[in-house]
Amino acid sequence: MASIYLIRHGQASFGAENYDQLSSLGWEQGRVLGRHLARSVEPGLVVGGNMQRHSETVEAIATGFGSGLPSMQVLEGLNEFDHLDVIKGLRPEWADRAAMMRDLADFPKPAKA
């Protein structure tokens, strides 16, 4: 059976002139992930958005992975999305921010919710 792995881009350069590029930590995150994936995954397809941090993350993963990682196919629909829309789609009652904050405060460890 096929598997789908959803991977978020590495750490971007917050506060830098070009936020979209990976930070040095983001590059290292990609290389570490590539080494990990190389031990257990044989990807048939790699898809990502067309933002710089997407392509740099795949480049870093490829460095850690070694040969055999397919070239990334670009799908612009994977660029930016409104995270609040995603949350509301999963938990419609959280369209009310106050309700969401109350519910999250009730979790045993809100920071891990």
Kindly describe this structure.
The protein is mainly alpha-helical and 113 residues long. The protein folds into 2 domains: 1-79, Phosphoglycerate mutase-like (Rossmann fold), CATH 3.40.50.1240; 81-113, no CATH class. Helices cover 41% and strands 5% of the residues. Strand 1 (46-48), helix 2 (52-65) and strand 2 (72-74) form a beta-alpha-beta unit. Helix 1 crosses helix 2. The longest helix has 15 residues, at 24-38. The chain is globular. The mean pLDDT is 90.
* Main sheet characteristics: 2 strands, parallel
Kindly name the structural category: mainly alpha
Radius of gyration: 17 Å
CATH architecture label of the largest domain: 3-Layer(aba) Sandwich
> What's the name of the CATH homologous superfamily of the largest domain?
Phosphoglycerate mutase-like
Helix and strand run = HEHEHH
CATH topology of the largest domain: Rossmann fold
| Overall 3D shape | globular
Mean pLDDT: 90
The N- to C-terminal Cα distance equals: 30 Å
Strand order of the largest sheet: 1-2
Question: What is the count of distinct domains?
Answer: 2
Helical segment count: 4
What are the low-pLDDT stretches, counting only 5+ consecutive residues below 50?
none
Compute the number of strand runs. Answer: 2
Helix fraction, binned, reads 40-55%
At the first level of CATH, what is the class of the largest domain? Alpha Beta
Strand content: 5-15%
